[in-house]
């Protein structure tokens, strides 16, 4: 099945999601939101014990935007396991629907496993025969094409031919829009850097509820015991990245939006570090859930 002492290929991860949906049919629903450029399914899970659909606040969590950041799908699957399979965490099901997509860029993820460990982007054809792929985290339709993105297909931060040029980001955005009334918290898991990053990321600007997001982020980060995370605005702590998904999520009205940069330093995290990183992170989920469950 699944473990957090090794990294897993896409088939294993999807097999685990399938297993959970089959084993806990009243709790877990497997949702296919479309197909990747190379024809892989785009799966996420909905975890909920509500009887009426869409009747309570929801949390969105994704991983695997950037192919090489393997620790992020590992954390996403760990969060799924903790919510679904650990009775001690049953309170996380009170008044919250969870939408969790472990691998948002499956083509890139598989390519980083079988061909090129440090692959980042999608795998679509571009106008350059030699350079494939778009940076999915520069492909979103908010301030698309601004600072920190590139129009050069050979760049690691290539923005694509237009906003949502990628079938993966388009399917993702359509699903989130369909749930945007319910989703109150948005976490997109990346690596690396040990940071909780708060919009905006397109420029040094701050959303109107920045102070609230900072306070909740600090509260969540105070739970981390092994790894210390910095909390703050993206541009202040990192760099400009116009067209990133978190800015877009904020722009459509989601209250609490964070880009998580997981430990440590470097994209290649040894498998022996998965368990400490995911275990250290999980208590923050409880902090976020407690806050979100009260929002209407
Ligand atoms: O550059 C990115 O897309 C993210 N970092 S990563 O190393 N995972 O690629 C950061 C995006 C966060 N947003 C901003 N820096 N504005
Ligand atoms: Zn990333």
TrEMBL record:
This is Peptidase M14 domain-containing protein. Its cofactor is Zn(2+). Belongs to the peptidase M14 family. Keywords: Carboxypeptidase, Disulfide bond, Hydrolase, Metal-binding, Metalloprotease, Protease, Signal, Zinc. The active site is at residue 261. The keyword Hydrolase applies. It comes from Daphnia magna. Residues 6-292 form the Peptidase M14 domain. The keyword Nucleus does not apply.
